[in-house]
Automatic annotation (TrEMBL), chain A:
Keywords: DNA-directed RNA polymerase, Nucleus, Transcription. It comes from the Eukaryota. The keyword Transcription applies. The keyword Coiled coil does not apply. InterPro entries: POLR3C_WHD, RNA_pol_III_RPC82-rel_HTH, RNA_pol_III_Rpc82_C, RPC3, WH-like_DNA-bd_sf. Residues 170-203, 221-242 are annotated as: Disordered. The gene is POLR3C. It is found in: Nucleus. GO terms for molecular function: single-stranded DNA binding. This is DNA-directed RNA polymerase III subunit RPC3. Residues 229-242 have a biased composition (Basic and acidic residues). Gene3D superfamilies: 6.10.140.1450, Winged helix-like DNA-binding domain superfamily/Winged helix DNA-binding domain. Residues 170-194 have a biased composition (Low complexity). It comes from Amphiprion ocellaris. Residues 8-66 form the RNA polymerase III subunit RPC82-related helix-turn-helix domain.
UniProtKB/TrEMBL annotation, chain B:
Belongs to the eukaryotic RPC7 RNA polymerase subunit family. GO terms for cellular component: RNA polymerase III complex. The lineage of its organism: Eukaryota, Metazoa, Chordata, Craniata, Vertebrata. Keywords: Nucleus. Residues 144-162 have a biased composition (Basic and acidic residues). This is DNA-directed RNA polymerase III subunit. It holds the Pfam family RNA_pol_3_Rpc31. InterPro entries: RNA_pol_III_Rpc31 (IPR024661). The keyword Secreted does not apply. PANTHER family: DNA-DIRECTED RNA POLYMERASE III (PTHR15367), DNA-DIRECTED RNA POLYMERASE III SUBUNIT RPC7-LIKE (PTHR15367:SF4). It is found in: Nucleus. Residues 163-172, 181-200, 208-225 have a biased composition (Acidic residues). Residues 120-225 are annotated as: Disordered.
Length: 550, 225
C-alpha cells in the first residue's frame, strides 16, 4: 500500500464513485482494518454518507468486512485493498476481451457486471437484453435465452464466478435462521473464525450455473414518456419475480482474465521474435493446457509432440518433421518460452510460464532504459543484466564505450536507481582502497520500482486530464447544452435553418478550443490504457516471483 | 567529509576504482532541488494508435460516463449557496434520474450498515432519500405553504367579527383538514404555527404587540413599563 498506489486509488474512486466514497476509501486504505464508528469519527462525514459509501465499496468488492479482532462480540471491521481498486484501470480491456471471445452479448454482460459489482443472473440477463433491444431496429428484440446462453458460456470458461458467501453478514446461514443475528455473529460453522476471507474458489458451486426460469424478450424503452411516468413504469417492471436464483450473485473473475492476457502476451512475443507458425504452436500448447494448469503454476503440464501435432488447427498443414524442427527452435531460443521435459511420445514439451513472464519483464525494463537514456545506456544495462556483477573497467571494455562516456552513463543510471553498487571488501575494515566496487542490476527490485513509477504516471495522467477539463469547464458546459438543444430540436422535427442557427452559437475559435481539448483528453486517456498494459506485465512478474518463492 | 583528512584533500573512497581520474573536476554540486519538469533528452515515443486502442478509449470513456449516472455514484448534499440563484431551479433537476436507488440484498451486508428511513427532521431534510427528491418535496411544501397562508388570511378576514374562540376553533379545524390533505401526499407533518416561514423560531415567540396593554388593566398597582 504505497503512497503512489493510495493516490491512484483515490483518483479512481473519485472518478467512478464520487468524492464521498473516495474519502472513505482512501481512509480505509491508509488506516487498515477499522470499525464503523472510527471511520465516521476520523473522516468527519455524516453517518449515512459513510454507511452508503461502505455499502458501495462492499458491493463492488473493494472492501471486505469481518467480525472484529476481539472476538464475536466486537463490532465488524472493514478493510480495503489497493489491488481491487487498481483493477478499475483495466476494465476496458476486460470488456474488449469479452467482446472478442463472445461477441456483443458477452461484452454487455461483462460491462453490466463491472458497473454493478455483484448481480444475479436473472437481473443481468434482463438488463442486457433491454440494452441490446434498444440498439436493434424497430420491431426486433433480443430473447432472454440468447443472453442466458452467453452468460452460461462465460461461466463455463470461468470468466464469471459466484460471489463467495460472506460469513458474518446480515443473517446466519444454516445454524440459526431466526436468531436475529448481530453482524458479528459467526456464520457457517465450517469456517472457525478464520481471519482470511473465503476466496470464491473455495466453494464447490463456484462455477455452477443455477437453474433459472426466465422466459421473455428484451423490452424497448419508449422515448415518448416524460420523466415521472417513466420512473413509475420502470418501478412496475422491476418488481420482484422470483426466478429461482435468488441470493446467487455473480462477479467477474479477474484472475481468469489475467491468465488470458498473460497467454496472449506470450503468444504475441513469440510471434514477434520468431514467426507466425511458432506462435500458433505455442497457442495450441497453451489452449490444450488451459484446464490442466493451475493459475500459479510455473509451467504447463508436459505435452507430447504427438498430441501437439494432432491438436494443431486444421489450417496449419505442417508436416510432422517440420513441427519437430519448430519445437527444437523454440526450445533453443534464449527467451526460453518452451522447454523440453522428456523424450517420450516424440518429445515432451512444456511452456515455461514464469520464465516467460520474467523475460517479458526484463524486456520491458530494457526498453524503458533505452527510451529514457539512449541505446548505449541500454547496452550497459543489458550487459549488467547478463553478467550480473562488473567493475567499472570491465563495463567499459565489454560495452565498447569510451571510458568517460561509460562513466557518465553509469552514474546517471545509478542516480536513477536502476543500477546498484555492490561493495566487496578485501579487508574487514572496508578500506576504500582495498574494496571492490561492482555494478549490478537486480531485476526484481528494479521491476517493483518501475511498477511504482507506472502508478505515479497514471495518477499524473488522471490529474492532468481533470485539470484540463476543469480549465475549460465553462466551454464544455456550453457545448453540452447546445448539444442537448440540438437533440431536442431534431427529435421534434425542426428545419435545417434552426439547426444551423443553434450550431452557430459556438463560435469558431471556441470550436477550435473544444477540438484541441478533446484531442488532449483522448490522448491522456489512451496513455492511461497503455501504461496499464505495462502495469499488468510488471504486476504479473512480481506476483509470479512471490508465489514461487513464498 | 573532506575536512577529516587534516587539511589534506582526500576523499573517503579510492578515486581509482570508481573511475575519477586526477585533474578531472567533479560535476558541480546542486544547490537547490531538481527542477519540477526537467528537460528530456529523448522524446517519448508516440502512443500506439489503431482500431483496438480507439475502441478501448471509447469503452473507457463510456464506462466513466455510465458510472456517473448509477446509484453507486454518491454525491454529498450540495452546499447551499449564499444567495438563491435563478439557475438553482435548473441545476437541481439535473441529477434526478439515476436509476432508482438500488435495494441491496441485506443478507450480504452487515446489519449495522442499514439506513432506516426515518421521518424527516423539522427542517425538511430526509435522510434516506436522495437530495433531489427532498428538494422537490421542499418545493412542493413551499407552494403548499403559500397557498395555505393565503387561504388562512382569507378565512381570518371573513371571521374577524366573530368571537376569538370561534375563530380559533375554525382555524384549527381548517388547519387539520389541510394537514390531512398534506399528509395524504407525503408523510411529513409540520406544525403550521411553528412553521410559518421556515424559520427556526416558534411563531408565537414573536409577540406582535396586540396583546400589550389589553389585559391587566385592572391591576393599577403595578407600573406599566
Amino acid at each position: 500500500m504505497t503512497a503512489q498506489e493510495v493516490r491512484l486509488c483515490g483518483l479512481l474512486l473519485h472518478e467512478h464513485f464520487g468524492e464521498v466514497v473516495e474519502k472513505v476509501g482512501t481512509h480505509l486504505l491508509r488506516s487498515g482494518a477499522q470499525n464503523l464508528r472510527t471511520i465516521i469519527h476520523e473522516t468527519g462525514l455524516s453517518v449515512d454518507l459513510v454507511k452508503k459509501s461502505l455499502m458501495v465499496l462492499v458491493q463492488h468488492g473493494a472492501c471486505l468486512f469481518s467480525s472484529g479482532r476481539k472476538g464475536p462480540g466486537s463490532p465488524t471491521e472493514y478493510r480495503s485493498g489497493c489491488d481491487r481498486i487498481l483493477r478499475i484501470l483495466r476494465y476496458p480491456r476486460y470488456i474488449y476481451t469479452a467482446k472478442t471471445l463472445y461477441g456483443d452479448t458477452g461484452e454487455l454482460v461483462v460491462e453490466e457486471l463491472l458497473q454493478r459489482g455483484h448481480m444475479t443472473m436473472s437481473g443481468t440477463v434482463k438488463t442486457v437484453a433491454d440494452r441490446l433491444t434498444q440498439n436493434m431496429e424497430e420491431g426486433r428484440s433480443m430473447d432472454y435465452s440468447e443472453v442466458s446462453s452467453a452468460f452460461s458460456k462465460l461461466v463455463e470458461t470461468h470468466f464469471l464466478q459466484r460471489c463467495p458467501k460472506l460469513a458474518g453478514a446480515g443473517t446466519a446461514d444454516s445454524t440459526s435462521p431466526a436468531a436475529g443475528a448481530t453482524p458479528a455473529a459467526p456464520g457457517t460453522p465450517a469456517a472457525p473464525a478464520s481471519a482470511i476471507p473465503p476466496t470464491p474458489e473455495s466453494f464447490p458451486d463456484c462455477y455452477k450455473v443455477p437453474h433459472m426460469t426466465l422466459v421473455g424478450r428484451g423490452k424497448r424503452q419508449l422515448a415518448a414518456e416524460d420523466g415521472e411516468d417513466q420512473r413509475n413504469a420502470k418501478r412496475q417492471k422491476m418488481d420482484s419475480e422470483a426466478h429461482g436464483d435468488e441470493g446467487i450473485y455473480w462477479q467477474v473473475n479477474f484472475e481468469r482474465f489475467h491468465l488470458h492476457f498473460r497467454d496472449q502476451a506470450i503468444i504475441s512475443a513469440v510471434a514477434n521474435k520468431l514467426d507466425q507458425t511458432s506462435s500458433e504452436i505455442v497457442r495450441t500448447m497453451l489452449r490444450m493446457s488451459e484446464v490442466t494448469t493451475s493459475p500459479a503454476a510455473t509451467c504447463t503440464k508436459p505435452l507430447s509432440a504427438n498430441e501437439i501435432f494432432r491438436s494443431l488447427p486444421a489450417s496449419y498443414n505442417i508436416p510432422r518433421p517440420i513441427l519437430d524442427q519448430y519445437l527444437t527452435l523454440l526450445v533453443d531460443d534464449p527467451m526460453e518460452f518452451v522447454g523440453k521435459a522428456g523424450e517420450s511420445g516424440g518429445g515432451m514439451y512444456v511452456v515455461n510460464l514464469h520464465r516467460a513472464l520474467a523475460n517479458l519483464a526484463r524486456a520491458t525494463l530494457e526498453s524503458v532504459v533505452q527510451e529514457r537514456f539512449g541505446s548505449r545506456s541500454a547496452r550497459i544495462f543489458r550487459l549488467l543484466l547478463r553478467k550480473r556483477h562488473l567493475e567499472q573497467k570491465q563495463v567499459e571494455d565489454f560495452a565498447m564505450i569510451p571510458a568517460k562516456e561509460a562513466k557518465d552513463m553509469l552514474y546517471t543510471l545509478l542516480s536513477q536507481n536502476l543500477v546498484q553498487l555492490q561493495e566487496i571488501p578485501k579487508t574487514p575494515d572496508y578500506a576504500p582502497s582495498r574494496t571492490f566496487y561492482l555494478y549490478t542490476v537486480n531485476q526484481l527490485p528494479t521491476a517493483r520500482m518501475l511498477l511504482q513509477n507506472c502508478y505515479k504516471t497514471v495518477a499524473n495522467l488522471i490529474e492532468r486530464r481533470l485539470f484540463e477539463s476543469k480549465e475549460s469547464k465553462r466551454l464544455l458546459e456550453k457545448s453540452q447544452r447546445i448539444e442537448a438543444i440540438l437533440a431536442s430540436l431534431q427529435a421534434s422535427g425542426a428545419e435545417p435553418e434552426q439547426l444551423t442557427e443553434v450550431e452557430e452559437m459556438i463560435t469558431a475559435p471556441e470550436k477550435q478550443q473544444l477540438d484541441a481539448l478533446k484531442l488532449h483528453i483522448n490522448k491522456l486517456d489512451s496513455a492511461e490504457n497503455q501504461v496499464d498494459e505495462t502495469i499488468f506485465l510488471l504486476e504479473s512478474y512480481v506476483n509470479s516471483t512471490a508465489t514461487s518463492t513464498g | 567529509m573532506a575536512a577529516r583528512g587534516r587539511s589534506r584533500r582526500t576523499l573517503s573512497f579510492s578515486v581509482d576504482s570508481v573511475g575519477i581520474n586526477r585533474g578531472e573536476s567533479l560535476p558541480p554540486t546542486l544547490q537547490q532541488p531538481t527542477p519540477v519538469f526537467p528537460v528530456m533528452e529523448q522524446k517519448p515515443l508516440p502512443l500506439t494508435g489503431g482500431e483496438e486502442a480507439e475502441y478501448l478509449l471509447a469503452l473507457k470513456q463510456d464506462f466513466r460516463g455510465a458510472m456517473r449516472s448509477l446509484p453507486c455514484f454518491i454525491q454529498p448534499a450540495a452546499a447551499l449557496r449564499d444567495v438563491e440563484r435563478y439557475s438553482d431551479k435548473y441545476h437541481s433537476s439535473e441529477h434526478t434520474d439515476g436509476l432508482m436507488d438500488w435495494t441491496p440484498d441485506w443478507q450480504r451486508f452487515p446489519r449495522e450498515l442499514r439506513i432506516h428511513a426515518r421521518k424527516p427532521a423539522r427542517d425538511g431534510v430526509s435522510v434516506a432519500r436522495s437530495d433531489a427528491q427532498s428538494a422537490q418535496k421542499k418545493k412542493k411544501k413551499k407552494v403548499r405553504e403559500k397557498e395555505e397562508v393565503l387561504i388562512k388570511l382569507e378565512t381570518l378576514q371573513k371571521k374577524e367579527e366573530q368571537q376569538s374562540e370561534e375563530d380559533d376553533d375554525d382555524d384549527n379545524t381548517e388547519q387539520k383538514k389541510k394537514q390531512e390533505d398534506d399528509d395524504a401526499d407525503g408523510d411529513e407533518e409540520y406544525d403550521e404555527e411553528e412553521f410559518e416561514e421556515e424559520t427556526d423560531y416558534i411563531m408565537s415567540y414573536f409577540d406582535n404587540g396586540e396583546d400589550f396593554g389589553g389585559d391587566s388593566d385592572d391591576n393599577m398597582d403595578e407600573a406599566i413599563y
